[in-house]
Sequence to fold (165 residues):
Amino acid sequence: MNAIVKRKASRKLKTLIAILLAWPMASGAQSDVTALVKGGEILVGGLITIFSSSKKNPASTTVESVCIKNKMTDKITLVLTRQTEDGEEFKKELIIQKDSKECLFELPKGVYSYEVILANNEVYKKGEYLFKDKTVITLKEEVKEEVKEKPVEETKEEETKTPTG
Fold:
């Protein structure tokens, strides 16, 4: 008798799991394509974080990942260059769309020259960066505040007349 009850409970549980798994597929999509892509990006990033090795090898000559987030108003191009020990130039170029993120994996450790180029081919930033560990860089637009100068007030010296008596 007990085995029959277990079998029925097992069948009910399997049916419930199948219904729960099939329910989202049967219902219509509740988001547009961009939200779906961003969700997929978050899911993949989470899976990479979960399944990446948590053990750090101090003797490693590569950086696990370098990610760049673009919070600017338009797409940007990031150019990373580095001279290798052999004297050859190592160059990577990333085109990062607005509100998006791009990553480089297994990047050799070291000092890289970087150049951030805007969509109108204007150089936004230029410099050097030392990549020695997993890194996420967020690029935001700098808000420039205009300094309003106070108008110089002309001061008139009043002539004081002394009474002559």
Notes: The beta strands are 62-70, 76-83, 89-96, 100-108, 110-118, 123-131, 135-139. The longest strand covers residues 62-70. DSSP finds two helices and seven strands in the chain. Residues 2-26 form the longest helix (25 residues).
